[in-house]
Design goal:
Helix content is about 50%, strand content about 20%. It is α+β, with helices and mostly antiparallel strands.
Length: about 270
């Protein structure tokens, strides 16, 4: 009985001595969580104000939150008078083991960080590389999501994208539309140019200024036709509308003026000795 009372007194004394440390650790944890919430919210609003890409904003907010949580954890452990040296050594060893096991994934992570901060493309851009082309939906730390024209969501490792030559078609707001028009060799070149210029003049949605002017040029002497190149400029969002409109209007204008579009043909000459 006396031993039980002695044990209870010792336990109660230990709890009373440990209670302030526990309360301090809980307070530190609560304050840390609150600070993380406030800092992340302020950072998010600041990045929204400065129009930072949503993928980069999400990455920064996540990184800040994790950093504050780690600092809070070590502070709480210190309040509990628990040595953090062993914990640091454990995490270091675990990180080394994970790094060896996930070498390929670390390459994706490194590539993702480079993409997020160098910004060769951002969310919403239309990019093309290798066999893929589509709109960037999301840039994660390891993958980039692309929505293709047929509404397929393609998930591509960042290391693949960083190693490829990427064409960012929306890097510039204005893009060039180019249509090649084959014309018979016997056609009047000046008359054809006037017809094609008139087609561009009547086309809607074009951008015309000092650096974006319409042009019609005899580009090449083809095997079966003279090849004219019709060039104009429009906003990226209007590209296909303008392209299809110019192509159709060129055909209709040539038909109206009696200019036929030639097709490939081969003349065979037989020589009798």
């Amino acid at each position: 009985m006396e031993e039980a009372l002695s044990f209870w007194e010792t336990l109660k004394k230990s709890i009373i001595e440990f209670l302030p440390q526990l309360v301090a650790a809980l307070i530190i944890t609560g304050v840390g969580v609150l600070i993380a919430f406030i800092v992340v919210r302020i950072a998010k609003k600041a990045m929204e104000k400065h129009k930072v890409d949503s993928s980069l904003s999400a990455f920064i907010c996540k990184a800040v939150r994790i950093l504050i949580y780690i600092m809070t954890l070590f502070s709480a452990l210190s309040a509990l008078k628990i040595s953090t040296a062993g914990l640091v050594a454990f995490f270091s060893t675990a990180a080394a083991a994970i790094a060896l096991a996930l070498q390929d994934r670390l390459n994706d992570i490194a590539s993702g960080i480079v993409i997020l901060f160098t910004r060769p493309f951002v969310t919403g851009d239309f990019i093309e590389f290798d066999k893929y082309q589509g709109y960037v939906q999301k840039i994660d730390i390891m993958h980039t999501n692309i929505m293709t024209y047929d509404r397929t969501n393609v998930i591509i490792p960042n290391s693949v994208i960083s190693a490829a030559q990427v064409n960012n078609h929306t890097a510039q707001p204005v893009v060039r539309v180019q249509v090649v028009v084959p014309i018979p060799y016997e056609a009047d070149v000046k008359a054809v140019k006037e017809i094609l210029y008139q087609v561009l003049k009547e086309t809607d949605l074009l951008v015309r200024d000092e650096t974006h002017a319409d042009s019609v040029n005899l580009e090449k002497f083809g095997d079966s036709a003279l090849e004219f190149t019709v060039r104009c400029f429009c906003d990226f969002k209007d590209y296909w509308t303008v392209y299809y409109s110019v192509t159709q209007n060129v055909k209709e204008a040539l038909d109206k003026n009696g200019v036929t579009i030639p097709f490939n043909q081969l003349d065979v000459h037989i020589k009798n000795d």
